[in-house]
Design goal:
Elements: E1 11-16, E2 23-28, E3 35-40, E4 46-51, H1 57-60, H2 77-80, H3 113-126, E5 130-135, E6 151-158, H4 161-165, H5 170-196, E7 201-204, H6 213-219, E8 224-225, E9 231-232, E10 240-247, H7 262-270, H8 272-276, E11 282-287, E12 290-295, H9 309-312, H10 315-318, H11 321-345
Antiparallel strand pairs: 1-2, 3-4, 4-12, 5-6, 6-10, 7-10, 8-9, 11-12
The protein binds cobalamin and iron/sulfur cluster (2 copies).
């Protein structure tokens, strides 16, 4: 299924970072086809391009396949009129402000480790599974609204297993809605906590399309966006809801390196979410640039019927992050060994 065993050597590739918009170069040490670019086309479908191992960004330039028009950071105009799948995902909704505490008149900017520790303990007590820190970048904005504060605290909460155990329909959707409501309430509580301690805040509600929350989670190095389009984290795999608090806190413990980039490589060998989708919202196509995954959002019943099949069949959900990482590391070591043996024979 994937571009393996083409016998290529270490080659320099490049990809556009979805969040920073900066072109990054990296070395590809085996042929797992981990070349990755995202483009969007005018019908609103999202694509993840799996380049064949001999492809480089420059080789694709001008080939007509659309790779050179990397528009993943542009706003998708079809989404501005609603996501098109008859869902209640929050495109046109205003969420009531549940804050109990006003923003302070004199806002604080510096934060010490002791405070962060206390904040995290409180967040975990409320049901938050992972917390990440990053800064706001205009590219993650997906609405006309404004983000007022430069730093972001990203929060994830595990999805209730009931959503996964219930087949798509009204009941599953009601569990799904309840999860968004629950995380919304927790986010407001945490925002109040920060305000009480002198920091100003603005909330990105989990069901609201203010900023791209999955991309924000990836930018905070909490995980990586997998082929399903969902953020995969060690704590929950893809089965989580995400929210964020924008704040004035300046010296947050931002993680510089994302330790989860290997997930891209794993996804290229897997593709289970594509097979699991009953609506053919995720489809794989062969192009001149290799395999590509397209997301047809108006086919997706995730937010209208609480569908979660692409989550349930993901090995990060069924087996867990640590198990998959060990397996992946073993495979990479084996491929490396094979390559070294080949070099010795030559
Ligand atoms: C609108 C919306 C939808 C729409 C369209 C989403 C879309 N993928 O474009 C529909 C109704 C189809 C939808 C479906 C689902 N959604 Co939704 N959705 C949103 C919402 C409100 C806005 C997303 C958005 O418009 N981003 C802006 C556009 C321009 O970004 P984008 O370039 O399209 O990039 C997004 C995706 O397309 C994806 N992506 C990027 N490139 C590619 C490439 C491929 C091949 C694929 C498949 C996806 C993909 O990553 C980005 C994630 O937002 C967010 C909340 C938020 N504020 O982020 C939740 C959100 C993305 N959804 C979420 C979830 C869980 C789901 C569902 C599983 C439904 C469910 N049962 O909850 C399905 C999953 C579908 C899928 N496989 O991606 C979670 C994701 C959690 C995570 N682990 O990452 C979010 C973050 C909500 C939350 N607060 O937790 N959703
Ligand atoms: S939520 Fe369901 S319909 Fe949407 S992409 Fe996932 S499996 Fe397909
Ligand atoms: S099912 Fe496989 S390809 Fe899809 S997101 Fe999970 S690991 Fe990646």
């Amino acid at each position: 299924m994937k571009d393996k065993d083409c016998g290529c050597e270490k080659i320099e590739k490049s990809r556009i970072n979805k969040v920073s918009g900066i072109e990054e170069s990296y070395n590809d040490s085996d042929c797992a086809g981990d070349g990755f670019d995202e483009v969007s086309n005018c019908d609103g479908a999202k694509k993840t391009l799996k380049k064949s191992c001999s492809d480089t960004q420059s080789q694709n330039d001008g080939c007509g396949c659309g790779l050179e028009e990397n528009k993943s950071l542009e706003k998708d105009s079809s989404l501005e009129e609603g996501c098109g799948s008859g869902c209640s995902c929050g495109w046109d909704k205003e969420y009531p402000d549940l804050s109990q505490v006003e923003n302070p008149l004199q806002m604080k900017h510096r934060v010490d480790d002791g405070f962060i520790q206390k904040f995290e303990e409180y967040a975990h007590k409320l049901g938050i599974s992972s917390i990440g820190y990053t800064s706001f970048h205009p590219e993650i904005l997906i609405s006309d609204k404004k983000v007022y504060y430069p730093q972001a605290i990203v929060l994830t909460m595990p999805m209730d297993r009931k959503i996964m155990e219930t087949p798509p329909g009204e009941e599953a959707q009601s569990y799904n809605d309840a999860a968004y409501e629950k995380l919304g309430k927790i986010t407001y509580k945490l925002s109040d906590y920060l305000r009480k301690h002198g920091y100003s805040t603005q909330i990105a509600h989990p069901y609201e399309a203010l900023v791209d929350l999955s991309a924000l989670g990836e930018k905070a190095s909490m995980g990586l966006i997998g082929e399903s389009g969902l953020l995969i984290t060690p704590e929950c795999g893809p089965a989580q809801k995400i929210s964020a608090i924008f704040t004035t806190m300046e010296n947050l413990p931002v993680r510089q390196e994302n330790p989860h980039t290997w997930i891209r490589d794993y996804c290229n060998r897997c593709g289970k979410c594509i097979k699991a989708c009953p609506e053919k919202a995720l489809i794989e196509k062969e192009t001149c640039c290799g395999k590509e995954v397209i997301f047809i959002q108006n086919q997706c019943i995730g937010c209208s019927k609480g569908c979660t099949y692409c989550i349930e069949d993901c090995p990060f959900d069924t087996k867990g992050y640590d198990h998959i990482k060990i397996r992946h590391d073993k495979l990479v070591a084996k491929l490396e060994e094979k390559k070294n043996k080949g070099k010795l024979l030559n």
